Structures are given as structure tokens and as C-alpha cells.
Amino acid sequence: MAKIKMKKKSTSTDMTAMCDVAFLLLTFFILTATAKVPEALPVDTPASTVQTKLPDTDLAIITVGKGKVFFDIKGREIRKRTLEGIGAKYGINFSEEDKTKFALMDDFGVPVTGLKQIIDMKAADRTKANQPGIPLDSLDNQLKEWLLISRRATIDLDDKELQIAIKGDAKEEYPKIKKIMDILQDQKINSFNLVTGTRGKDF
Amino acid sequence: MAELNTGDGGGGKGGKVRSKKQNSKVDLTAMVDLAFLLITFFMLTTSLSKPQSMDLSLPDKNDDPTKDKDLKVDEKRTMTIMMGEDNKLVYYMGLLDAPIAGPKDIAYGKEGIRKELLARKKSVIEYTGNKDKGIIVIIKPGTKSKYKNLVDILDEMAITGVGTYAIVNDFQPKEKELLEKK
């Protein structure tokens, strides 16, 4: 009788294709990931259960903490245009190099006169610079100007309304936040976002 | 014998020496494991690092007080929540001079204000008999309240599903008294 030989099935599968896909995805995620830069004004945002993500572009973030106000715009082209506008408004001449540097920066909190100094600093020094915050009293309301000019820049470039988000520290007193809201409302911005942390559903 | 003879399977006859076929496959399992681990890491960090936010819409600000129209609302539908110093929270239903409930101090969170809100929400709908005419919450953050208090209350609104609420900043003297009372 002929012996029927059972063919031994190999238990190992071919991993090559899987490996290819895995590394392709890995490369994609690594390249799209952006390194987190330390914020100039670290704040501890209050938690909420609402989870709407903030948009990536056409967004301005007003950071409020320790009594100071910082400002940040997302989107390089809008930043450049805004700086041009601010320069024209306050009669400060920003060079092309300044603009490029400003486009790559993050949040800042200095009066317009000190802006050039901050732009010239290295990224690591900016966080240590102890920036005094943007002035927003009624005599010298620079935050208002920043908002106006950046909104105009967004409409010029993207034909969209700039989204405003307020990122406040949990321990910040309400009147300070109210002041920001008032400035926004003076410009007929009645709808904005509050940046919050996450909290479990069963809170 | 022909030791060096490789690759050539069944060559000559007699005294067959089969050279062992070397397995050209490399075990990729560990590598795939590692790759997927890293993928998971990058995927989660990119989507989770985006800050969460909460939408807030305020009514139009009217600088001209003569234009202010008083909106007539049934006072039985309104609930006023006031926030004060040190996480103090006071609420009352209806008008302060003739309150339906309260004014009472209450705690933040699940067992405090949320329970009350849910109960009130239900009773108001029962009272009006109309689903569209639900509770109206007036949020009054005091000057000494913290930003966290405001976000907490707005969050409660989202949790309990109260759609009509307003942030009001002016206080009646009596309300102020209530809030400052220890």
C-alpha cells in the first residue's frame, strides 16, 4: 500500500506584506505628527465632558492665565499677513525674515513694541522670557487690534471667518475672562470656543 | 563527499547527500509587532493631542439700553444659578422675591446641581405641557468666581441637555447679599 503522506502545513505566515503596510502607516504617522513645543504661558484648562475638537486652521487662541493674556494664530500665511497689518498699524517695520520667523512661532504675549525682540529670540528662550502679556486696557487695547487684523487677514486669504478660542486657566477669576468675552462681543463675535480638558463620561 | 554542492537538489545517484535548504525567510513577527506598536502610539498621540473645546454662543450685545426689549418669559420656567467665591453655588427657581424653590446653597457635580437640574427640567416640562418650552437657566457668575466654575456649570448644561441658558452679569443687591453670605 502506498503510504499517504500528510503534508506538513507550515504554521508561519508570510509577514512581508503586513510588515510593508505597517511601516508605510508608521512613516505616515511619524511625518504627520507635530512635535509639541512648550507653551509660553502654560495653563491648566478646566475639564468638561463636551468633546468638540478645535479646527487646525483659521483659529486664534487667546490664552488667559496668571492675569496675563497671550495670543496665538494658527496658519502661517495668516500669521504673516497679520504681522504686516500690525506693523502698518503701529508704524513698525518688520523685515521679511521677521515675518517668516513669526509665522513659525507659537503664542506670544508682549506689547507690539516688544514683539521684535521676541521674534529675534530662539524658540527655547521665548518660553523663558517671562513675557508680560498683551495689553488690553481701554487706553491701549492691543488685543482688539490683533483680533481685528487677524480676522481681516483670514477673510482676505481664506475667505472664512476666523474662529476664536479662549483657553483659560481653571483658577483664573471670572472678571478677567469676562473682559475677553466683552472684547470679542464688541467686535460682534458672539460665538466662540472654550478650550477644555477631557473628563470621563460618568462624571 | 560533494559538500560544496548546494542548491542542486537530487544530483547524482548513490550516496545522496542532500544539502539542507536554507530557509530564506526571516521571521518578521517581532518586527511587525514593533511596527504596529509604534503605529498605535503615533495614531493616538496625533488625534489625542488636539485640544478639546466647548462651544459657547452669547446673545448680541446691545450698547444702546433704550433698544433693549424686555423679553417676557414665564418666571416659573426660570432657574437662576449664581456662582460665588470658593465654589459656592446658589440657586433659586422663579423670581427672587417670590421664589418657587430656594434660594439654596448647593454643591457642584452629580449629586448636587445636576440632580436638581434634571428634576427641575422635568417638572417645568410637566408644568408647561410643551416639550419646546423647557427650563430656562440663568447663569450668574459672580466677580469672585473662578473660570472653572463657569465651565463646570456650562458642562452641566451640556450633560443635562438644557438648551436654553444665558450668562448674565448683573446682580440685584439682594442676590449679591445671598452670594456673599457665608
Helix and strand layout, with pairings?
The complex is a heterodimer of chains A (203) and B (182).
Chain A: H1 16-32, E1 47-48, E2 52-53, E3 59-65, E4 68-73, H2 76-90, H3 96-104, H4 115-120, H5 123-128, H6 142-158, E5 163-168, H7 174-186, E6 191-198
Parallel strand pairs in A: 1-6, 3-5, 5-6
Antiparallel strand pairs in A: 3-4
Chain B: H1 29-48, E1 52-57, E2 78-83, E3 89-94, E4 99-105, H2 110-128, E5 136-141, H3 147-160, E6 165-167, H4 173-180
Parallel strand pairs in B: 2-5, 5-6
Antiparallel strand pairs in B: 2-3, 3-4
Family (chain A): Belongs to the ExbD/TolR family.
Membrane topology (chain A): Single-pass membrane protein; Single-pass type II membrane protein
GO molecular function, one term (chain A): transmembrane transporter activity
H and E order of chain A:
HEEEEHHHHHEHE
Broad shape of chain A? elongated
Q: Characterize the quaternary organization of these chains.
A: heterodimer
Strand order of the largest sheet of chain B: 4-3-2-5-6
| Beta strands of chain A, count | 6
> Number of helical segments of chain B?
4
How far apart the termini of chain A lie comes to 74 Å
What is the CATH topology of the domain at 74-180 in chain B?
Nucleotidyltransferase, domain 5
Q: How far apart are the termini of chain B? A: 103 Å
Strand element count of chain B: 6
What structural class should be given to the helix and strand makeup of chain B?
A: alpha/beta
Helix content of chain A: 40-55%
Percent helix of chain B = 25-40%
Largest interface: A-B, 56 and 47 residues
The CATH architecture classification of the domain at 74-180 in chain B is 2-Layer Sandwich
Task: Return residue spans of chain A where pLDDT drops below 50 for at least 5 consecutive residues.
Answer: none
Structural class, from helix and strand content of chain A? alpha/beta
Low-confidence stretches of chain B: 5-12
